[in-house]
Amino acid sequence: MRNLELCDPVAITAVPATCPRFARDNAFQVELRHRVDDYFERTGRRRRDVPQMYLKTAILLVSFVLLYALLVLTATTWWTALPMAALLGLTVAGIGLNVQHDGGHQAYSSRPWVNKLMALTLDLIGGSSYIWHIKHVFYHHTYVNITGVDTDIDLGGLARVTPAQPRRALHRWQHLYIWPLYGFMAMKWQIYDDFKDMIRGKMGGHPFPRAKGWDLATFLIGKAVFFSLAFAIPMAFHAWWVVLVYYAFTAAIVGVVLSVVFQLAHCVEHAEFPMPVEGTDRMEHAWAIHQVETTVDFARRSRIVTWLLGGLNFQIEHHLLPRICHVNFPDLSKIVEELCAKYGVKFNEHPTVGAGIASHFRWLRQMGMPSPG
Question: Is residue 195 exposed (0-12), middle (13-18) or buried (19+ Cβ within 10 Å)?
Fold first, then answer.
């Protein structure tokens, strides 16, 4: 059972035969839907088109324009350029975590064109909203933490983050070397991964329909705009090597922020990494239960973290309710936690960002250790 508030539309026309199937016991999901509906009816709050979200969008986009203009047009020394570049990187990450993310999940507005416009901010900052929708909305959100299907947990052999992934000798030190590598994630995604996936028509070994028509035009125009903003325009004012250095610095900040936020929710000690029942394509639990058991909240009591990360510290709530604007998650988390207690589903959280980072560090170390015996 899939309620419109509980699941995004599938980005591809048919579920690949290699994807597992979930159990049919949907009592938890049905009651969650009813309680969420009752909450919005009782409080009169909006699921989408929330004024606070429009204000946040304006703050982030205006900050992006101002910081970009100041960095390109006025910065003449490294001690003024570096802080601007760092703030620009944080702002770009903020746009991705807040504006693009809600738009891409159709959680920003009840009007499809508004969601599409907000989702396109990803193309502005170097990604592809088309590729992201298939990779993140379909493969990650539907099959979260299932090795071989959830493409977001496949680090290409650089790290082992699930028990079902093969261990390599270098993984013994992954808890130390992975942190700077996270900084290359945005660069790799902007310059290489999107093109590779679009040309091959495959993602993590799974085929998907290549973009055509308007989607293809959006992909190409988006990349052209990004390369112009990142390289062509700055090189009209600065030496090419200076532009490359500051691009790498800014993109590294974006990569670290986006990677760590994701890892704190899924690649930590208390998250489950279930696989289909041996000899079948069936998962043990229903879809909604699977979402809770494979996800961990963090820093739920911090309004600052919630604002900056687009509510993604309420990752359990986001996975269960991806089409509801993230500003509602602090209140909805109480409903989810109560239901988990009622149905005997373990609700996991870390009290702070630091606790989540420490848990990710320990999980990486555990996954990198040789198997006993």
Answer: middle
Write out the two tokens for 83. Answer: 């802080």
Which own/partner pairs from 215-221 qualify as long-range (CB within 8 Å, at least 24 positions apart)? 215/130, 218/120, 218/123, 218/129, 218/130, 219/123, 219/128, 219/130, 219/131, 219/194, 221/123
| Torsion angles phi and psi, residue 214, rounded to 5 | -60, -35
Residues 29 and 156: their CA atoms lie apart, in Å, by 33
The terminus-to-terminus CA distance of the chain in angstroms comes to 44
Cα(358)–Cα(325) distance, integer angstroms: 29
Q: What is the pLDDT of residues 44-57, one digit of tens each?
A: 999 999 999 999 99
DSSP letter at 95?
I
Q: Per residue in 97-134, pLDDT tens?
A: 999 999 999 999 999 999 999 999 999 999 999 999 99
Torsion sign across C-alpha atoms 268, 22, 33, 52: positive
In whole angstroms, give the CA distance from residue 145 to residue 105: 19
Q: Is 106 left (phi over 0), alpha (psi -120 to 50) or beta?
A: left
Instruction: Tell me the pTM.
Output: 0.91
**Is 123 exposed, middle or buried, given 0-12, 13-18 or 19+ CB atoms closer than 10 A?**
buried
Q: How far apart are CA 326 and CA 47, in angstroms?
A: 9
